[in-house]
């Protein structure tokens, strides 16, 4: 299980790193009022290597989530009995949170992925050789916001890439960081921190 988790974390990111470098026109871009942004040359290989795989993963997640929600609604009467028969830490509350995450993933991942691939497909660039694409690779290109304001789709795409990961983090924390076990852990950690600060305060300013 440990090595499978390591493979899931490392292999996809390594492949994305390799593909990103292959279609990277220069070092990076700096967008006004946004910050650093990848300098991806939007050619056909960039679409296939960087934008299509997330669509495929989102589509698979959409199908699996749909089956999970359908089966849960169709067999909800047998649900509790099935959980009680199997020796698992999964209970109805945790399963409902998983179903909720599946539903949110269905609503967000696939539509956003489709929007990104459609938006970037409108700006496809010609495919050049490796030498032409990586010529003057150390350039850092600066882009004024006024240029992006003239292209509302580009500014929307940049903000979408900025906030989707933040939104996903809040959603996952809301589902898995607010259940009973997590709340008791948060309370225990907070008590330890306050106790440590109280001890330090008493040692520094208290009387013997």
From TrEMBL:
<feature type="transmembrane region" description="Helical">
    <location>
        <begin position="95"/>
        <end position="118"/>
    </location>
</feature>
<keyword id="KW-0675">Receptor</keyword>
<keyword id="KW-1133">Transmembrane helix</keyword>
<feature type="transmembrane region" description="Helical">
    <location>
        <begin position="160"/>
        <end position="178"/>
    </location>
</feature>
<keyword id="KW-0297">G-protein coupled receptor</keyword>
<feature type="transmembrane region" description="Helical">
    <location>
        <begin position="44"/>
        <end position="74"/>
    </location>
</feature>
<dbReference type="InterPro" id="IPR001499">
    <property type="entry name" value="GPCR_STE3"/>
</dbReference>
<dbReference type="GO" id="GO:0004932">
    <property type="term" value="F:mating-type factor pheromone receptor activity"/>
</dbReference>
<keyword id="KW-0812">Transmembrane</keyword>
<dbReference type="GO" id="GO:0005886">
    <property type="term" value="C:plasma membrane"/>
</dbReference>
<protein>
    <submittedName>
        <fullName>Pheromone receptor</fullName>
    </submittedName>
</protein>
<keyword id="KW-0807">Transducer</keyword>
<comment type="similarity">
    <text>Belongs to the G-protein coupled receptor 4 family.</text>
</comment>
<keyword id="KW-0589">Pheromone response</keyword>
<keyword id="KW-0472">Membrane</keyword>
<dbReference type="GO" id="GO:0000750">
    <property type="term" value="P:pheromone-dependent signal transduction involved in conjugation with cellular fusion"/>
</dbReference>
<dbReference type="Pfam" id="PF02076">
    <property type="entry name" value="STE3"/>
</dbReference>
């Amino acid at each position: 299980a440990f090595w499978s988790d390591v493979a899931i974390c490392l292999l996809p990111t390594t492949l994305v790193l390799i593909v990103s470098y292959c279609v990277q026109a220069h070092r990076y871009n700096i967008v006004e009022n946004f910050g650093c942004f990848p300098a991806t040359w939007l050619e056909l290989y960039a679409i296939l290597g960087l934008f299509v795989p997330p669509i495929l993963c989102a589509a698979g997640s959409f199908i699996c989530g749909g089956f999970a929600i359908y089966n849960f609604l169709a067999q909800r009467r047998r649900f509790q009995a099935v959980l009680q028969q199997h020796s698992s830490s999964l209970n109805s509350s945790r399963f409902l949170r998983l179903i909720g995450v599946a539903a949110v993933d269905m609503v967000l991942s696939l539509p956003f992925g489709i929007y990104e691939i459609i938006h970037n497909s409108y700006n496809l660039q010609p495919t050049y050789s490796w030498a032409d694409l990586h010529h003057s690779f150390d350039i850092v290109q600066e882009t004024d916001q006024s240029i992006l304001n003239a292209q509302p789709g580009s500014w929307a795409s940049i903000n979408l890439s900025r906030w989707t990961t933040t939104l996903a983090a809040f959603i996952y924390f809301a589902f898995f960081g607010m259940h009973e076990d997590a709340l008791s852990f948060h309370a225990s950690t907070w008590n330890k921190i306050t106790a440590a600060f109280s001890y330090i305060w008493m040692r520094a300013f208290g009387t013997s």
